[in-house]
Amino acid sequence: MTGEAQTQGSGAGRAGGQVLLAIMALAVFVSVLNNSMINVAIPRIREDLGVSASAIGWLITAYALVFAVGTALYGRVSDFVSLRKTFLVALLVFAAGSLLCALAPGFAWLVAGRVLQAAGAAAIPALALGSVTRLFPPGARGQAFGAVISSVGVGAATGPIVGGLVVSVGGWPWLFLGTLLLLIMLAAAAWLRMPDSDPADRSAGGLRHFGLSGGLLISVSAAALFLGVTGLQQTGPNAPQTWGPLLLSLVTAAGFATHIRYSATPFAPPALFRNRTYLCACGVAVFAQAAFLGGGLFLIPLLMIEQHGLTPLGTGLVLAPSALAIFLLSRLAGHLSDRIGPRAVLQGSLGLVLAGLLFLSTQAQSPPGIIAFGLLLMGVGFTGVMSPNANAASFALSREIAGIGSGIYQLFFFMGAGLGAAAVGAFLSFRSETANVALNPLYSAGPGAAPYSDTFLLAAASTLIALVFTLGIRTGPGHQSRS
User: Fold this and answer.
1) Do both 357 and 422 map to the same domain?
2) For residue 21, what are the domain limits?
3) Packed helices 173-193 and 83-103: angle between N→C axes, nearest 10 degrees
4) 79 shares its domain with 190
């Protein structure tokens, strides 16, 4: 079986598969660009709307929460409903949220718009992964995933720069109007050119077999876990805002486990959670994403602004080389995972992420150029995590359960991002109050950046856990699910 993208059984044909990849890559780009642009506009939004420092975080938290939960639900819907129709509806919801944000008369309306944006954008990663799993054979998926994921780097690299320029010239509402224009163009392309899924690949029985109670249980569990960890950062471990949601998350997770075991129409097939490769790929997704986003894309802007006094645009330039590496190397990483197997690529790549974090822990007080080099090392490594890990997870998915399997995988992936940022923020606050000397014996600079040095070590520990999960990944014809 070659590494070339060859579609299978869907009737879309090879050309249709390439069109699908192009549309999904553009959708991922718009989604990432939307978020990376907004991050640099937060100080201006706070000033214009008179929002407190604690409240402004809901622009990020509300979006991340709805986005993470929505991926699993969209994935399940796509197992029963036309891929093209699901995608178009999601784009319309995303566009409606963007319009509401642009016209928002106050902060509450802006948060509502962000929630609506997330409710539509959540479909993009789940449908992208599920459609690749359906349309491409196992030996060609890695390269296809790489083609889609490469657009993450473009959106992440250009977002802070474009956002800084647009906010400076026209104001933050124009960011949302720009997103709206891109979504209209994307919806037109999807309507005219996007191939649909084959009805033969859809689960039998229609949406009455959706497993609504299971969908609600996993959604509440994920949302409560996210809120509990966020509460740990904001109010500490003893506050009801922390332990209450965490307790609710445990209870609903147990309820979900019971549901999929005993329900006649489970939200997800029980065999999916007995597949070691799939579960380990989900574990890698959580801890690798937590390390890269928490220890890199979340922590480094704080370090640059608070310790080095950089502007948002200057901080974006520090992040840009890492994002560019993701764009340039994603296809190669996916191709390698097709040729030599996902596990070998994952282990080497996580080793680079670990090396980057240890370097940053040692050099936390160094000039921005040195920090950019450490983040670049992490970015090169993380490039070899995203598409190969998605490739590994896809080995557990037959075409009939590609939607729900992809959705739950993406739920783990994006929960890792949210939990990583919250855990890093909480640990940084703790070490800022207690650290006089860095834990890393190789850190020799002053105490100012010592808490950051320690927090990079926390992210390194998360990377080590991800490496342990790679030991359980087995891929090959004999390991693909027949569910």
Assistant:
1) yes
2) 13-210+267-477
3) 160
4) yes
Residue 439 has pLDDT above 60, yes or no: yes
Residues 61 and 201 placed together within one structural domain of the fold: yes
Residue 431 inside a domain? The answer is: yes
Q: Same domain for 112 and 140?
A: yes
Is residue 179 in a domain? yes
pLDDT over 90 percentage in the chain: 32
Say if residue 262 is in the same domain as residue 274. Answer: no
Residue 3 belongs to a domain: no
Together in a domain, 119 and 223: no
**Residue 7 is assigned to a structural domain of this protein:** no
Query: Nearest Cα to 404, choosing from 290, 264, 241, 271?
Result: 271
Higher pLDDT, 443 or 36: 443
Closest CA to 283 of 421, 124, 462, 427: 462
- Render pLDDT for 137-194 as a digit per residue (tens, 0 to 9): 877 788 888 888 888 777 877 787 788 788 878 888 999 999 999 999 999 998 988 8
Contact 223, 417 (CB under 8 A): no
* Cβ count near 373 (within 10 Å): 18
Distance, CA of 278 to CA of 281 (rounded, Å): 5
Count of domains for the chain: 2
- Indicate if the pLDDT at residue 203 is higher than 60: no
- CB distance 393 to 257 below 8 Å: no
126 lies in the same domain as 239 = no
Query: By C-alpha distance, which of 40, 297, 16, 234 is closest to 134?
Result: 16
244 and 376 housed in the same domain: no
Q: Out of 12-16, 408-412, 477-481, pick the least confident.
A: 477-481
When mean pLDDT is compared across 329-333, 400-404, 408-412, the lowest value belongs to 400-404
Q: Of 221, 242, 266, which closes a domain?
A: 266
